[in-house]
Amino acid sequence: MAQKRSIIIYLFIAFFNLQPSTLAFAQKITFVKKELPAELKTINVLRVENSKTLWIASGNGLFKLENSNIQRFWDVRSRKKLYVNTLEIDQFGNKWLGTYSGELLKFRNGKISTSVDFSEYLDADNSIVTSIALNDNNRDTVSKILLTTSDGQIFYYDTLTLEKGKLDSPVKDMVYSINYGYDKTIWLCTSEGFYTKKAGNQWKQKQDLFLSYGIFKSHNKYWALGRDQSKKAVFMLYYDRDGTTGQRYVWKKFQLKNIPDKYIRLYEVGFTSDSYAWITSDSGLIRYNSLSGNVKVYNQKKNKDFKIKTTRHIAVQDKNTMWISSPGRSLFKLTIKY
User: Fold this and answer.
1) What is the value of pTM for the model shown?
2) Are 175 and 189 in contact (CB under 8 A)?
3) Which residues are CB-contacts of 263 (< 8 A; sequence separation ≥ 6)?
4) In what order do the strands lie in the sheet with 221-227?
5) What is d(CA 20, CA 22) in angstroms, rounded to the nearest whole number?
6) Is residue 3 helix, strand or coil?
7) Confidence (pLDDT) at 37
8) Do the beta carbons of residue 150 and residue 174 sit within 8 Å?
9) CB-based burial, 284-296: b 16+ in 10 Å, e otherwise
10) What is the DSSP string of 168-184?
């Protein structure tokens, strides 16, 4: 009983710290659709830089949205280089792009400064870079960028030695994402399950997530989306069980009350600083109240200004602003007022 009580107290504190100033539940949400240039055909990833600039990875180039202006970056000499499927931004402002053709690109000051080609390991039909992992843990000194492909392969590029190579993979099918976790642990989210690997050890499959779509970091906490053994949607938090030593981290599963479909497909999650998780799904945008467990869904049926049935990508700009996209090219700016 004491252990259960300590877990509840820890989780309450963890959620409360997402917004120390207010826990107001009365929110007014406005939806404004952003008009996009015709050449932007698909949105693959949304990332916010410095709480003001939105970067859009697309199969038709890299796009930058700032102060209502959209700029397209496109390599006219080798157009395939900017068929961008995924994007991450490091602490120095470098954009690392994963392409449709098995390349990792470093993009800085409006141009490609580094190109790392992994096509020698790949078949033409399975050369899409599906995710990139940057180590942003200041306690570690890992300089390797990790990336995965649509056929289950894992590669690395060392930014110090400039060495590239291939890592052993526990799967041969789709890898949704790869992440650095605590203490140089690597997390792998795949269609075949959730895997972890500590430095010097082999991959181990975790049974918490029968199918895992992604790990998302917010306020030094890690959140997971996936499915359980019965294929029901799962939302989990990785937390310190005893709350003090940091030695016994476990996954805590949350109940999604009033979710429209227990088998719903969840895609990505973002946090505003008011203790709410915003989850994209095939039923719209889900607002999850982390204190009560309640769910509210925003979609085209319930919100006349939000013309999206399936929400796919999310980027939180600040506590009052988010960007949400469809699987296609629809992009909405969401503003929260209290």
Assistant:
1) 0.88
2) yes
3) 227, 231, 232, 233
4) 211-218, 221-227, 233-240, 249-254
5) 6
6) helix
7) 94
8) yes
9) bbbbbbbeeeebe
10) --S-SS-EEEEEE-GGG
Q: What is the pLDDT of residue 9?
A: 45
Buried b (16+ CB within 10 A) or exposed e, 147-173: bbbbbbbbbbbebeeeebeeeebbbee
Amino acid at 29: I
Residues 6+ apart with CB under 8 A from 305: 30, 31, 32, 33
Torsion of CA 250, 256, 257, 259, to 10 degrees: -170
Tokens 């199969």 sit on residue: 59
Question: Would you say 195 and 171 are in contact if contact means Cβ atoms under 8 Å apart?
Answer: yes
CA distance 22 to 41: 39
Predicted local confidence at residue 243, as pLDDT:
56
Chain position carrying tokens 């960028």:
145
Position 159 scores a pLDDT of 93
d(CA 197, CA 181) in angstroms, rounded, equals: 10
Q: How far apart are CA 64 and CA 70, in angstroms?
A: 5
CA dihedral in degrees (226, 217, 298, 52; nearest 10)?
-150
- Helix ranges restricted to H, the chain: 2-16
Q: Are strands 321-325 and 331-337 parallel, antiparallel or unpaired?
A: antiparallel
Compute φ and ψ for 230, nearest 5 degrees.
-90, 5
3-state DSSP assignment of residue 239: strand
Q: What is the pLDDT of residues 182-230, one digit of tens each?
A: 777 899 999 999 999 998 899 999 887 899 999 998 877 889 999 999 9
Task: Characterize the bridge pairing of strands 95-99 and 84-89.
Answer: antiparallel
Sites in the chain below the pLDDT cut of 50: 1-10, 12-13, 15-24, 139-140
DSSP 181-200: -GGG-EEEEETTEEEEE-TT
Q: Which residues face 148 on adjacent strands? A: 131, 154
One-letter amino acid for residue 306 of the chain: F
Residue 276, pLDDT score? 87
